[in-house]
Each structure stands twice: as structure tokens, then as C-alpha cells.
Prior knowledge:
It is a single chain. It contains 13 helices and 18 strands. It is α/β, with parallel strands linked by helices. It has two domains: 145 residues, Alpha-Beta Complex (Aspartate Aminotransferase, domain 1); 273 residues, Type I PLP-dependent aspartate aminotransferase-like (Major domain) (Aspartate Aminotransferase, domain 2). The longest helix is centred in the C-terminal third of the chain and has 22 residues. The protein is globular, with a radius of gyration of 22 Å.
Amino acid sequence: xxxxxxxxxxxxxxxxxxxxxxxxxxxxxxxxxxxxxxxxxxxxxxxxxxxxxxxxxxxxxxxxxxxxxxxxxxxxxxxxxxxxxxxxxxxxxxxxxxxxxxxxxxxxxxxxxxxxxxxxxxxxxxxxxxxxxxxxxxxxxxxxxxxxxxxxxxxxxxxxxxxxxxxxxxxxxxxxxxxxxxxxxxxxxxxxxxxxxxxxxxxxxxxxxxxxxxxxxxxxxxxxxxxxxxxxxxxxxxxxxxxxxxxxxxxxxxxxxxxxxxxxxxxxxxxxxxxxxxxxxxxxxxxxxxxxxxxxxxxxxxxxxxxxxxxxxxxxxxxxxxxxxxxxxxxxxxxxxxxxxxxxxxxxxxxxxxxxxxxxxxxxxxxxxxxxxxxxxxxxxxxxxxxxxxxxxxxxxxxxxxxxxxxxxxxxxxxxxxxxxxxxxxxxxxxxxxxxxxxxxxxxxxxxxxxxxxxxxxxxxxxx
Length: 464
Ligand SMILES: Cc1ncc(COP(=O)(O)O)c(C=O)c1O
């Protein structure tokens, strides 16, 4: 009989022969294969648990195999599992209503929802909406931004690496420095900088020679600014409190829409339903995906304010995809919305986040190589540096990441692995997105495992 180890070996051999290497599975030195999941854990073929601190890039906010969401999917299989998007079904309508009502509560703005399947597709749909509404094709986005890797979404994603082999299909965004205060683009310090970065953005509009505005007519060439409220792939960077309010004033003055990409930070990841709610401004368009279905049948979409998305502005057939609003996805999404909207979700996320961040701060005190820890809700970061606490240390980040996946960590006499995710401008930040249901014991485990990994790869000299 084939053992678990034999099966794993055979599968990896077939993978290396038959699977494209074009996705991210081969970012790892040795691709990793899992066979089970539950709560905060993934399991390999030997049954070893791996504590997951990134939960499918924040797509599984409620933990693996969430009973109620899984039951909703099972019951949809029994009732109406398949239906072309051309026809309506109850769950689609109720889900659109639930998201619209929630967004109205969050931002006091009426609007509608349009569904698709993947995040990048929803981003592209939102690009079409904004192009249609404004007749303009140029966008601002942030340095360090990630909005997806389809051809259109790559144009507003900061990395040239993702565009280089393919050329340009759309208009490359104008990328503006993000308020990454730990490594301020302008070499300023938060507290004394007086939001110098916002001033620099405002200066673009001072004269026509800065290439964004016709100062004679006042018309700006740019349609929208795509923002992530907390920069995700860029390293879970939380902007300073008044940043977005100041930026939005400039955008409003020049009739530039703000598109809020909540793909990673939406659905309470930051302790509020939408991440942008922390900053006291309203979006014109909001894009979402990932955690909407807790990682079950994928579903994404965008919300837009009524004046942009009403049937006259965005008429039938403006965009379409075969599997958008698929019944399995909408059923999962509707149950996720019900769970999220029950009393106490914000409190749960904030309490667990506070405890987790406190633990990270303890580690920072102990290891000089931890240059920065920060977080909001359960979206947290650890930035790994050299001993000087500032020079990026990609090697140490990689070493810890790979050692976590090797699975030799011990807790109460059992071997475990640790699943982390690396982001950041220098690929030297752990972006942490644990399950909303992470227990105190699991936070303690995370502490023990991270402590062990840092001490294994650093000189353990206490910081002074
Ligand atoms: C902020 C943001 N926008 C868009 C996307 C693209 O979503 P998808 O990978 O589902 O295409 C991602 C994915 O990580 C993301 O983090």
C-alpha cells in the first residue's frame, strides 16, 4: 500500500513534470504539499500540523473548515448548485443587498454591487466602470501597491517585474510614494514631517508642467486613484491617521475618484468592516474578494456609489464573466456576511490583534533584527533587518520562512510547522493574517515558534 510519504513523493514528481511553474508554488525552494486543514492549521501527509499565520493571504478569515459556511455550501449543492449568471438566484440578490447595506452603514453612501470571480477580475471591472464614467484612462496608484496580475491590473500594480515580459496592454499608472513612515520616501520622520508626502502630491497640481492637470480649464487627466487602505503585499503598512483625509481633499478638488481596494483588508481584517473606515473618508468605488467566501467558491466584486453604477451609467452587458455570481460562491458569501455581522466580531478581532501585537512587541525587544512591528486589528507586520534595525535582511526572512515550513518546531511534545508569508518592498516583511478565531493558546504557540526561529538564525544578542 502507498504510504503518505510515498504518495507525497509521487505527487511532487508528477507536479514537477506536468504542472506549469508559472504560478507561485515554486517560490519555495521545495514546493510544499498539504492534505488537510482545520481552524488555524494545515496538515501534511504525515498528519503534522502547521500553524497558519497568513490564512491564504487573508482569504480564510474565519478559519479553515468553518462549520456554518461549509454547511451553507453543502445545502446550496442540494438546492441550486449551478446557474448561468444571466439568471437570478436568491443568494446573489441577498448578498448584493447585504454588502450594499453594510457599505451604506460604513460610509453613509448608497450604491450597488457587481460580482466577478477573482480579485484581479473585479479590479479590471472597476477600471471599466471608472473609464466609462469619466472617459479617462489614466490612474494614480501607490508605490508598493498590488492590485493583481492580469494584464489590466498589472498596470496599476507597482512591480515592473510583473509587466516586463508582457509589455503594456493598458496605461501604466503614475505611482505615488505610499506613507511608509518606517522608510519614509522623503527621509522625513513622522511627527515632524507635517505630512510632507501629501504636500508633494498636492504640488503635482500646481502647474500644467507637472503633467497631470490643464490649469487653464482645471481638468485633470487622471480618472481615479487606486488605494489599498493598509498596503497588503507591500508589507501590511498602516498609514498615519490623517493621511487619506488629506489626500481625498486633493482628489475631490480635481474630480478624481478614489477606488478603495479592500481585497486583503476588507471583511474585518483590520477590526472594522472595511479598512478605509479607520480614516474618515468615503470611497467612490470599493473592490473586494478573498475573504468574502472564506476561501470557498471564489467570488469577488466591486461596490460603487449610485451615480456611477446606476443602470443608466453602467447598463446591462457592461462587463460579464461566465462564473460571476455563481450560486456556490454567493451562498458561501451570504453565510460569511451573516457570521461577520453578528455582534462582537470587531471586538473579537481587536482583542486578538492587541494580544498578538503585544507578543510581537516582546519579540522586537529581544531581537535587534526586528526593525519594525505594527498592526491594526489582525493585520500585522514584522520587518526583518540587519542588526542595525533598518537595513533590509531578506536572507534572514527567507531562512525563517523556510525553517517554519520544514516543520521541526516543538510544542507540548508534538512537532509542528509554521506557515508565514513574505511581503514588503525588500521582501523582508512577514505579513501576518491569522484566523479571527485564533485562540490564546495558538498565539502563545506563535510566540514560541517565532522566538525559536529568530534565536536559531540570529546571534541572540539582546538589544540595548
Ligand atoms: C489588494 C489586492 N488587490 C487585488 C488582488 C488580486 O486578487 P486575486 O489574486 O484574487 O486576483 C490582491 C491579491 O493578493 C490584493 O491583495
